[in-house]
Amino acid sequence: MTNSLLYIRNLSKSIGSITPVKGISFELERGSCTALLGPNGAGKTTTLRMLAGLLSPSGGEIQYEGGGKSGRDWQKRIGYLPQYPKFYGWMTGMEYLIFSAKLSGLSGAQARKRSLEVLDTVGLREAAKRRIAGYSGGMKQRLGIAQSLVHEPSLIMLDEPVSALDPIGRREVMDLLSRLRGEVTILFSTHVLHDAEEVCDRMVVMVDGRIAEQGSWTELREKYRQPVLLLEVEPAAREEAWLRTLPGMPFVESADIRSRTAALAVRDLDQARNALMREMSDSRIRFQRIEAGTSSLEDMFMKVVGG
Amino acid sequence: MNFEINWGIVWPILALQAVLAVTALISLARTATEAVRGPKWMWVLVIIAGNLAGSIAYFVGGRRDA
Amino acid sequence: MRLFWVFFHKEVIEAARSYKWIWVPAVFLLLGVMQPVMMYYLPDILRASGELPPEAAALITTPPPEEIIASTLSQFSTIGLLVLVLSAMNIVAGERTSGTTEMILSRSSSVLTMMTAKWAATMSLLLLSFALGYAGAVYYTYQLIGPLEWGTLAGAGAVYAVWLAWIVTLLLPLGAVFRGPAAAFLSLGIAAALTLLASLLPSQLPWSPGRLSAIATAMLTGESSPTFAPALAAVLLIILSTVAASVLLRRRPLSAQA
């Protein structure tokens, strides 16, 4: 693909006896916003650290468009925000940005100019001359995003940028990310599907060091649209025993059986509906609720993450 | 005391001690209460009463890292 | 080289914000000045206290200028060194344990540049403090007690500064592995062990950098001993420490994943 900014092929990382990343492949398109989605411990942070050049991969390949195979030459074109960004509390916000910009090779005048620009972008102009030690969590996170942007990178990688924030801080950062969309390629990790949906057009779902699913938002919505029947029965031994026989029924594609409820994914809704009704009246099942609907990405995510 | 102290010799020592103590007190005043180990008034006493050692103790162990 | 100055500038400002440029030199200057003044007044004080019989007090005289400088150096070796080590103990350990390195190293992968800048900033503080304290001691000794020879003073001062330098440099690799106070304790422990060993076995360990403080003192009192081997060993140890610190920090720059 000519429009890709970053290719990752079969990337893996072992640390001692554990392998947090077990061979993953994906690409980032220029200008896209991709969410790296997955539960805690899925290997998201390790992946981002490898992409940022902080950890060296045990296997596989990271290739940046136009660059060599290593992240080194590319560090200047990447902005990275760790999960728990730590600043020098004795510096002011402005000083930290200038310091960061200079480390990425900007001249003094450029560093100053860009720092002021990104302070405006993240809405910290007022606080620029205050010591970072006095910043709130949301302000620190916005300063973290500002430092990831200060050297005008082509790609910014943000590790769980909102998970440690209170609702107000979270809103500030989510709005900021939505505004940045399109201006810069974004890869951010989160364990909250809703956050991913709000700002991103693509997602990569990681579970246990592997990619469980990836694609554009609409593609995946379509893919996981499947008719489902939801069923709730009276709390009684006979009903509950009957529920457990459902996965064996011919019309059921897959089933999620709890003690009193069942969610049945089916191929043909009408056929399944009839079959289920017949089955229930034959077995004289006392149901409380039956519902027909479609499954969603949320269900898929819960299943992938929970399973 | 039956010998003369030459104040021209001694005053720089007293002045230096004063500089140290004043620097320590300024630093203490400008540090947020949460960033100081222990109560501030205790450090004021230590710096004033403790001479050289008091000021050193404050600079070395009085502040938490931000 | 540009990166070096960016890091160096940051270190200098950081030290300034915690008043290190004032208090560490002030402590050295005090130590340096107090020693000759104390020695100068000691016979008077003893006589005035009346606890010694006058005949005994008369025997106590002010020592020669070279000996006063030598005793000032021994003050620097205890309180002075302790202050230097404690003020610099978090220079690497603090960055590592607080996690500030993660964002820094995602920009510039040159840990060695960062480490060299940290070393240079620490040495600037060390040299400034020692030079002030030493100059103060020399000035007061010269004014109160008697003349000194400039060449000897300069030589002893330089040798002594190298002794301080290698001990403080040990904080870099130790800080890349241990927390600040542990790094400080270990560097002082290593220094004490090497210095003691060198004084116990001077002929077996002629090259030991632990001998440098003793050599400096000996130079003042007119004895000369070969300086080249221990000084070279100290310089090599400094280079090795800085490189090792970079390698260690490069290997584990990240806080544990939560």
UniProtKB/TrEMBL annotation, chain A:
GO molecular function terms attached to this record: ATP binding; ATP hydrolysis activity
Pfam families xrefs: ABC_tran, DrrA1-3_C
Source species, domain of life: Bacteria
Signal peptide interval: none
UniProt keywords, alphabetically: ATP-binding, Nucleotide-binding, Transport
Domain ABC transporter: start-end pairs: 6-233
Family of this protein: Belongs to the ABC transporter superfamily.
Name by which UniProt lists this protein: ABC transporter ATP-binding protein
Taxonomic path: Bacteria, Bacillati, Bacillota, Bacilli, Bacillales
UniProtKB/TrEMBL annotation, chain B:
Cellular location(s): Cell membrane
Membrane-topology annotation of the record: Multi-pass membrane protein
Pfam families per UniProt: PLDc_N (PF13396)
A single cellular component GO annotation: plasma membrane
Keywords: Cell membrane, Membrane, Transmembrane, Transmembrane helix
Keyword Coiled coil: no
Transmembrane segments: 7-29, 41-60
UniProt-listed InterPro entries: CLS_N
Main location: membrane
UniProt domain Cardiolipin synthase N-terminal: residue ranges: 19-63
Name this polypeptide is given: Transcriptional regulator
TrEMBL record, chain C:
Origin: domain of life: Bacteria
UniProt keyword annotations, A-Z: Membrane, Transmembrane, Transmembrane helix
Spans through the membrane: 21-42, 73-94, 115-140, 160-178, 185-207, 227-249
Protein name: ABC transporter permease
Organism: Paenibacillus campinasensis
Lineage, opening ranks: Bacteria, Bacillati, Bacillota, Bacilli, Bacillales
